[in-house]
């Protein structure tokens, strides 16, 4: 074989932009499979609309229309009533990958990477060659429209035809044409996605026009905004060396010591003094901009040796037990459900999160199979339904690790559904496509505990139901003898047959207390713990 020199090989050396990278690897953004690709477009736009309205304190009104243009070619139109995007940011926001208002903040929003909307622009461009039509307005005075595309070589926006329109429009409207996609009304389709989104965001009103022209309205059921998510400072234990350097290099603080106090939560001057004792070679009086890798390494080591107060979890907003119940009733209408909200916990040392879980039993829970039923899992992260990549997800993993038999549940063969929502200021997604939560041990453990807690509730219900069934059978067969016996006793004693029958009934019922309890629970629906009521609330 002839020797090939490094110079010859390196003639091929090129640098590529992130947009070029995703153009080649669109599956990483969720653009793989025709049905999934179309759901991804809707998912990216709708999560952005929910985030934007939530941050602006506006009750969201979102319109989604999907129109078929040709075989495997559809138009998607998403419009919201949010704050819109200022004209000078439109290119960066919708046509620059890794640009946005969320990536650099710890705040509980649905988006976090600055990739979603530009990913849609890129996908439209590589499948149809067409730009995205945008309209944005603040509701005051004029709105503007334009077309946006991406110059992929430089990851730079291409804006054309920008014009003012005389419309009192408030919000953002995006319209794009996408090919290699397909609309399907299935468990993994847009209708299901929007329905589940509406259910976990009861303050939102979502209108959907499907490709047949049929319109669906998921009505707003709560007129109150959920609490506005507040940005929180990072906790020192959640940092890696690189994170610390990045924070330090953009810091305006004069000294490393004040940088630590200003930038991170739970760092006081006392804590800095403790760090100084451990990280002896770091000069805390130097400018944070001068912080070197080896010093950051030493600081991180020191941080891990100091005792810290856990991060503040008050900025985390779960869906809430009552709403989870309404949501599950609407999706599954189960015979019984048990809902659990766990206390805040921390992963990677410093990122707080809250798990909500439920186990629903009977009704439309589980999946129908040819031979009966099998269990299903409903996954949510910050109220966003996750429909794909189940196998890669911490929620699936946790549910798989549960020993269901312990709870008298046959997950493989019964109509059971598990629901889990993870809320956090930073969801550790398994990929940029944001369809699965990465398998962080602390998160899996916490999900398992939550599911087990909920499963116990179902177990008690099923056990109770089995006892009631058993006693009812016994009671009925015993009572078969009550009438002839009452007749004979009445004949012998001369007492009223009906009275004797009543007394016998009472006597027998005493031996089967669970039937009585079940009856009372049925009659007084509204008290907690009754079977029907589990689904009714
Ligand atoms: N409907 C909208 N209304 C107002 N601003 C929006 C809207 N959609 C997008 N933006 C702005 O554009 C930015 C980029 O959106 P994009 O979806 O690419 O990223 P992201 O939502 O920040 O993160 P992710 O990649 O996780 O979705 C957002 O951060 C936001 O500032
Ligand atoms: Mg987004």
Record keyword descriptors for this entry.
six-stranded mixed β-sheet; Ribosomal Protein S5, domain 2; Heat Shock Protein 90; alpha+beta; Helicase, Ruva Protein, domain 3; binds magnesium ion; binds adenosine-5'-triphosphate; 17 helices; disordered C terminus; 537 residues; globular
Give a verbal description of the structure.
The chain has helices at residues 6-10, 18-24, 34-56, 90-95, 116-128, 190-200, 241-249, 256-263, 269-278, 293-305, 321-332, 394-401, 441-479, 482-493, 497-509, 513-523, 531-536, and strands at residues 61-70, 73-79, 132-138, 143-151, 156-165, 170-179, 205-209, 215-218, 336-341, 345-347, 351-361, 367-368, 373-374, 376-381, 384-386, 416-424. With 537 residues, the chain is an alpha+beta fold. It folds into 3 domains: 18-218, Heat Shock Protein 90 (2-Layer Sandwich), CATH 3.30.565.10; 236-305, Helicase, Ruva Protein, domain 3; 313-537, Ribosomal Protein S5, domain 2, CATH 3.30.230. Strands 5-4-3-6-2-1-7-8 form an 8-stranded mixed sheet. Strands 9, 10, 11, 14, 15 and 16 form a 6-stranded mixed sheet that branches. It has a two-stranded antiparallel sheet with strand order 12-13. A hairpin with a 3-residue loop joins strand 10 and strand 11 (351-361). Helix 7 crosses helix 10 and helix 12 crosses helix 13. The radius of gyration is 30 Å and the shape is globular. The protein binds adenosine-5'-triphosphate and magnesium ion. The site of magnesium ion has 6 residues, from helix 3 and helix 5.
């Amino acid at each position: 074989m002839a020797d090939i020199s490094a110079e010859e090989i390196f003639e091929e050396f090129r640098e590529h932009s992130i947009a070029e990278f995703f153009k080649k690897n669109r599956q990483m953004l969720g653009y793989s499979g025709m049905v999934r690709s179309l759901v991804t477009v809707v998912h990216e736009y709708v999560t952005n609309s929910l985030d934007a309205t939530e941050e602006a304190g506006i009750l969201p009104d979102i319109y989604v229309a999907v129109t078929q243009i040709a075989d495997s070619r559809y138009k998607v139109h998403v419009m919201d009533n949010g704050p819109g995007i200022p004209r000078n940011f439109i290119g960066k926001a919708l046509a620059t990958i890794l640009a946005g208002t969320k990536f650099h903040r710890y705040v509980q929003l649905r988006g976090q990477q600055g990739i979603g909307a530009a990913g849609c622009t890129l996908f439209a461009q590589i499948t149809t060659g067409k730009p995205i039509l945008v309209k944005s307005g603040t509701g005051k005075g004029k709105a503007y429209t334009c077309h946006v595309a991406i110059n992929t070589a430089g990851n730079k926006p291409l804006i054309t035809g920008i014009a003012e329109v005389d419309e009192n429009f408030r919000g953002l409207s995006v319209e794009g044409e996408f090919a290699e996609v397909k609309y399907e009304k299935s468990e993994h389709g847009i209708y299901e996605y929007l329905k589940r989104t509406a259910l976990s965001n009861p303050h939102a009103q979502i209108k959907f026009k499907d490709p047949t022209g049929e319109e669906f309205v998921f009505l707003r059921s709560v007129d109150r905004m959920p609490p506005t998510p507040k940005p929180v400072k990072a906790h020192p234990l959640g940092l890696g060396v690189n994170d610390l350097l990045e924070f330090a290099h953009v810091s305006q603080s004069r000294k490393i010591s004040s940088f630590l106090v200003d930038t991170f939560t739970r760092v006081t001057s006392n804590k800095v003094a403790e760090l100084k004792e451990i990280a002896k070679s770091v000069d805390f009086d130097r400018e944070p901009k001068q912080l070197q890798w080896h010093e950051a390494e030493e600081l991180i080591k020191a941080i891990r040796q100091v005792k810290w107060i856990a991060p503040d979890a008050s900025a985390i907003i779960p869906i809430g037990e009552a709403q989870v119940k309404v949501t599950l009733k609407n999706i599954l209408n189960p015979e019984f459900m048990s809902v659990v909200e766990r206390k805040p916990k921390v992963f990677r040392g410093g990122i707080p999160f809250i798990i909500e879980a439920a186990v629903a039993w009977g009704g439309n829970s589980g999946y129908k199979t040819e031979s009966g039923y099998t269990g299903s899992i409903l996954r949510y992260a910050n109220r966003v339904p996750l429909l794909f990549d189940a196998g890669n997800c911490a929620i699936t993993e946790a549910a798989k690790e549960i020993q269901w038999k312990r709870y008298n549940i046959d997950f493989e063969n019964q109509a059971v559904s598990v629901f889990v929502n993870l809320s956090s200021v930073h969801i550790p997604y398994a990929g940029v496509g944001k369809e699965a939560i990465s398998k962080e041990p602390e998160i899996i453990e916490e999900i398992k505990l939550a599911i087990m807690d909920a499963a116990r509730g179902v177990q008690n219900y099923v056990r109770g139901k089995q006892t009631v069934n058993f006693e009812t059978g016994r009671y009925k067969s015993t009572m078969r003898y009550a009438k002839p016996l009452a007749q004979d006793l009445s004949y012998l004693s001369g007492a009223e047959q009906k009275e004797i029958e009543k007394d016998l009934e009472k006597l027998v019922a005493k031996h089967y207390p669970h039937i009585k309890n079940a009856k009372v629970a049925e009659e007084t629906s509204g008290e907690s713990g009754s079977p029907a009521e589990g689904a009714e609330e």
